Amino acid sequence: ADAVLAGMSQQFAAAYAPIGRPSIAPEKLLRALLLQALYTIRSERQLMERIDFDLLFRWFVGLGIDDAVWDASTFAKNRDRFLEMDAAAELLAGVVNHPEVRRQMSRDHFSVDGTLIDAWASMKSFKPKGNPGGDGPDGGRNAERDFRGEKRSNETHASTTDPDARLYKKADGQPSRLCFVGTALMENRNGLVVDGRLTRASGVSECLSAVDLADAYIPKGGTLAGDKGFDTADFVAELRDRRITPHVAQNAYDTGKAKRRSNIDGRTTRHAGYAASQKCRKRIEEIFGWLKTVACWRKSRFRGLDRTAHGFHLALAAYNLARMPRLLVAEAG
User: Fold this and answer.
1) Most buried of 92, 101, 115, 157, CB within 10 angstroms?
2) Are 170 and 118 in contact (CB under 8 A)?
3) Could you report the per-residue pLDDT of 131-162, keeping only the tens digit for each?
4) Could you tell me whether strands 166-168 and 157-159 are parallel, antiparallel, or unpaired per DSSP bridges?
5) Cα distance between the two ends of the chain
6) Which residue in 266, 220, 212, 264 sits closest to 243, CA to CA?
């Protein structure tokens, strides 16, 4: 963290005016946000209370024993400055490109998957686009609503709390909810995060994000593993056009009434590397499990796509930092 934040000093200098009242140092602010993800702290207000009495937190952030702790509202306003410079994505890239981290990562073999991040919006806020007013004769934001028999879709309705959120469900039999899609790219050697994308929820969000990540990080001749949701003709063709081998799980079935053939054939599955990729790709669920339990990212704490993406990238960077001590000890042993 010290080396990565030191490398971002020029970007911080450009984002902060040289005149005016002194603000919270950006390095200290990012350190505090990392602690929030690492120690399962749900809000900035609780984070400020923890920094006030915890000497470990004060040491890591860079505050002395007698230094005053920041106000939670001031801390949140200063955090929003990082949206313009995309500081969380830069922090994640700095962690990934650090020599000690890079040494632990595969250069050719990767896995990708996506997960739903609930939006900070209630289903009551999902109202018709042409009539976003009151819910009944009494009006009011907490008026009673009866959704039975009402048809709602993203084409006709939108959330008044978070317009970027979309109504979506990942599989049949699951309830639809307002959410975003977070997609992560993992290298297969030690299961570290390479990068991530947070997008509006749709049926093609994961595949489009996976292609974007493949263009940025996977060289020709590399492999990309994924679950059955990536077994589509378009996605497999996109990877093969880039000379990337699609190690995607086969989604083939024959129920008697319906039959489907996989887009992955024996040219790919006959190699031993395919089986190895299928075994490694399941570790990406550990990343999402850590994000949703330890880092409190089952549901976004922010409104809007940009703020949610900022928090998602910061949590991915915290995951890599949490994994590195154990990997370095194993390497030394």
Assistant:
1) 92
2) no
3) 766 555 555 555 666 666 678 889 999 999 99
4) unpaired
5) 23
6) 220
